[in-house]
Prior knowledge:
Elements: H1 6-33, H2 37-42, H3 54-62, H4 65-96, H5 99-110, H6 117-130, H7 136-159, H8 164-172, H9 177-188, H10 190-206, H11 209-215, H12 223-228, H13 238-267
Helix pairs in contact: 1-13, 3-13, 4-5, 4-7, 4-10, 5-7, 7-10, 7-11, 8-9, 10-13
Amino acid sequence: MKSYTWRTGLLEVVMVVVTAAFVFPLWLLISVGFRPSAEVAQSPLGAPSRFDLSNFKLAWEDGQLGTAFLNSVYIAAVTVAALVSVGACAGYYFARSGRGGRRWYAFVAAGMMVPFQIGVLPLYRVFSALGISADPISVVIFNVGIQLPLTIILYTGFIRQIPLEYEEAARVDGAKTFQIFRRVILPLLLPVTGTVIVLDGLAVWNEFFTPLLYLGGTPNVTVPVQIYSFVGEYTSNWGEIFAGLLMASVPILVLFFVFQRYMIRSFGSGLKG
């Protein structure tokens, strides 16, 4: 047994400070969200005397957060479905292609280095000309373009770890390329698909700037934009705001807990032959 040294004590102090830094915002979120505004004004950092749900009702009904939830779910679901479909097919092509495919893969990977703000205004003009600038589909198209490079990189790296013997055995049995992808490769992609769903779903769900620009002032706004509207120029109901933030975090937490085992498998070097 090693003796307790000053380094161990210092490490414990640092870990306590780091834990407090992460726990305090969560505590503040719960404390303010479950207390009436008058109680929050008297003691902003105090503990709730009782769990009051009036802020949640106010945010959901009067703040029209329910409609914004439906919009966010629609945008996130369609975007993630498109990313999984296109990313898996493109990843299979790049993982099994030759030199020409590797050149295109480098071109796609370079897309991660381009700031997305560059294309916001030009695309807005294009969407306005097409008449879809105020439609959720414009945000879907934009997010698919932004998240696709990372998605393809994740799928390509994972598929490269799948032994070629699986595909060769299927070809011996007479399977074509599409049949091999659908029956052999696709079932093996669950770990990386879970990772893609969580990462892309989180990015799309929390996206603020693009929905604000494309959907602001319409009934199609997303949850972050709708919560932003709770902040007034002179007064703000912080209980309503924090309650909205708590409700907005629930779908992401559920998504993470559902797919966390796939993420662990994917980050743990994926499939081993």
